[in-house]
């Protein structure tokens, strides 16, 4: 009756990543109304800097689309459906992107395609770069949404590049080669490498070695590099972030073939914390790709009303400069609260310098070194401790025991509470060896809530 | 050099990225390109091309703008609305804001005269109707499967339904001899043809009110269609994007009414596409709606809506606007009056020079009959005529060929996307052109069955102008039924 796409599970929503969200929806924490509810730590949102946006709005009534002309802008915007996008918006957007990259890279608005979020950008790129059945190599662990965004309707396959905690989950040449060989064994034609930089879920930025490996690999195999840089504005220390475009330029490869095989994806959902507005983008030097992707963007354009608002916001350079710095400062501070809080109870985090989350090492809390044990632990943390965190298996991590924990989508008080809850859970398990003691866990949870 | 570069790109990128599936090489878009390079402006470019190929509704912006000014809290950027900013900006749930879904469901009910109810939980967002169509194709069919679609049809369907999905569109050929109505015979014929070619038919795509015809389907035809799809167990996708552009009799009957009141059918086969781009004139806001009676389709389409959600800033505005029922009542009725007036102005103006149009009661356009101006009854002749209209008469109208019309000589002409002055200029140009053409191809007997009389060559331009200027003052509720206008 329905298509294969409609009846298969490639939408990926049966993953624990999304199941945790569903449990949270059934019993969401609220300081006053539901203090025993589940705290959402599985949603990588940035809620730390809304006051800055709100005060900008209060100072800039023109963004309402009326200004002093009394209505003419509204009509123009309401009718504006040109898939090339509002030029003023694209101009401001590329300048904002450059600012985030310390102006080491300049972007041309003509090479930018606007899409309904990075979700749509990533899918569109797959439609443009690969045939159904062809593959992209992606380093693990990776954002669970990629299983849907890159594969579901496009028919493209993902082959993982396995990264290990032994070297901080960095991409190695061996891992790239191994992934390529695996694709060959599966009879899959590899069309490209898909990197997320800064990484979700790791929160790390790619280093020069990794760039060397990925770029040499893509050059030698004659394949694409897609770089999802959606978290670029969440880097605590800007000097440590290098965009793929900068990396290519640093290696003097702009005049070679690889230049037209580099494609950047971004969005304003993480940097500015505006996921509801659906502002995504594809940037590429490949004109044919840009032409095709622009036409495809018809299936998911950005509302002209939103383009207009953002063109005003991003056009205020004093504001954007201040926002970028202050936002980074707050993210860094918040990350440190989580890291030190967990550290003090023997739970280490991967050293990170970006993102809205930490990659937390809970291997010591597993009953065994197995994914079943990871799921057991995850369920305990979800239902008994009352925290929705994302298990590493949902991110295709090859080693059990790692969890992504978000810290920027809640108030300071709620973060403190979640740390207390986790600390209580860890403490109740003695020296860190997890015992199946439901009773003591329940008592300790009650205690932790009383304390808070 | 150019060939090898293109070849290289074709290997570097997917077939989808380098083929013509985007449909933009169709003549539908050539006219737009001519317009873009020489757009009419009353003072800056009075000899430019007037855009009559874009089905936009610009007739009620005064009312809309007044509402927006009086309701600042509908914008999250005003002092009154800013307290909602954060809540709206972080909301990315693909169910959509509940108030948005409720308001849209209410509006859809109102447009159908409260004759049916819509469940807000079946409302799924999409990137415009464009996104809704593609999503439905992904949900209902596999690559190589087909949807049947009556001709003539909106050219965008070729891209929206086929490009990235791999499905096919097979025509149900309709003819001017019965005003392009869909018949049981034509549906069966199309279905049989598919069977013989070993093509699996998964759905039937209907556009009601019709683009480009501007007609609404009568109850009997709708019942026949529902019966047909039910018997064949194929899906019915009903695009009702023009549902609130109805301006005269006969009234619009929605498929939702048919399945509710007129005929039993498997509701799992019924899906609606809607948008605010035509009824309200908001194409820039990308408010696409997919409504399905099939739970599995709602669930799947909702997940797919992640690829084209409506900006929450826009959801918030639309929720406020459409829940103001005094406003929605006013806009629906005023829009209808103004569309009737505009439609009447053009069709009467054309009738005066012997140009027939298909009798229609909806849409932002009419279907113009220029068959007797063709050198011969071929599509080559239609293209020749069309190029003259674009480059010499300077009007961008859309040739029937681009709508897959089976008969040459028909053109879609949009009338709601311009101001009154442009309307007058357009009519003057048409009159002038027809008078000149008339001298070259003066018929001795009417060739078409529409009963158009001989051209009135003796009319002077000035007198034509007066008629045109005067006619729009007539009551929109009693358009003069000229014998020259095609009767149904």
UniProtKB/TrEMBL annotation, chain A:
Enzyme Commission number(s) from the entry: 4.4.1.14
Catalytic activity: S-adenosyl-L-methionine = 1-aminocyclopropane-1-carboxylate + S-methyl-5'-thioadenosine + H(+)
Name of this protein: 1-aminocyclopropane-1-carboxylate synthase
Protein family per UniProt: Belongs to the class-I pyridoxal-phosphate-dependent aminotransferase family.
Residue span(s) of domain Aminotransferase class I/classII large: 39-421
Transmembrane segments: none
Coiled coil: none
Alphabetized InterPro entries for the sequence: Aminotransferase_I/II_large (IPR004839), Ethylene_sulfur-biosynth (IPR050478), NHTrfase_class1_PyrdxlP-BS (IPR004838), PyrdxlP-dep_Trfase (IPR015424), PyrdxlP-dep_Trfase_major (IPR015421), PyrdxlP-dep_Trfase_small (IPR015422)
SUPFAM superfamilies cross-referenced by the UniProt entry: PLP-dependent transferases
CDD domains, per database record: AAT_like
GO MF annotations, alphabetized: 1-aminocyclopropane-1-carboxylate synthase activity; pyridoxal phosphate binding; transaminase activity
Pfam families (UniProt xref): Aminotran_1_2 (PF00155)
Cofactor(s) the protein needs: pyridoxal 5'-phosphate
Enzyme class name: lyase
Involved pathway(s): Alkene biosynthesis; ethylene biosynthesis via S-adenosyl-L-methionine; ethylene from S-adenosyl-L-methionine: step 1/2
Native organism: Coffea canephora
Alphabetical GO biological process terms: ethylene biosynthetic process; fruit ripening
Domain of life of the source: Eukaryota
Keywords, alphabetical: Ethylene biosynthesis, Fruit ripening, Lyase, Pyridoxal phosphate, S-adenosyl-L-methionine
From TrEMBL, chain B:
EC numbers on record: 4.4.1.14
UniProt KW keywords: Ethylene biosynthesis, Lyase, Pyridoxal phosphate, S-adenosyl-L-methionine
Pathway noted in the entry: Alkene biosynthesis; ethylene biosynthesis via S-adenosyl-L-methionine; ethylene from S-adenosyl-L-methionine: step 1/2
Required cofactor(s): pyridoxal 5'-phosphate
Domain Aminotransferase class I/classII large intervals: 50-430
Catalytic class of the enzyme: lyase
Catalysed reaction, written as an equation: S-adenosyl-L-methionine = 1-aminocyclopropane-1-carboxylate + S-methyl-5'-thioadenosine + H(+)
Record-linked InterPro entries: Aminotransferase_I/II_large, Ethylene_sulfur-biosynth, NHTrfase_class1_PyrdxlP-BS, PyrdxlP-dep_Trfase, PyrdxlP-dep_Trfase_major, PyrdxlP-dep_Trfase_small
One GO MF term: transaminase activity
GO biological process entries: ethylene biosynthetic process
Entry keyword Zinc-finger: no
Keyword Lyase appears in the UniProt entry: yes
Source organism superkingdom: Eukaryota
Family: Belongs to the class-I pyridoxal-phosphate-dependent aminotransferase family.
Name of protein: 1-aminocyclopropane-1-carboxylate synthase
Organism: Coffea canephora (Robusta coffee)
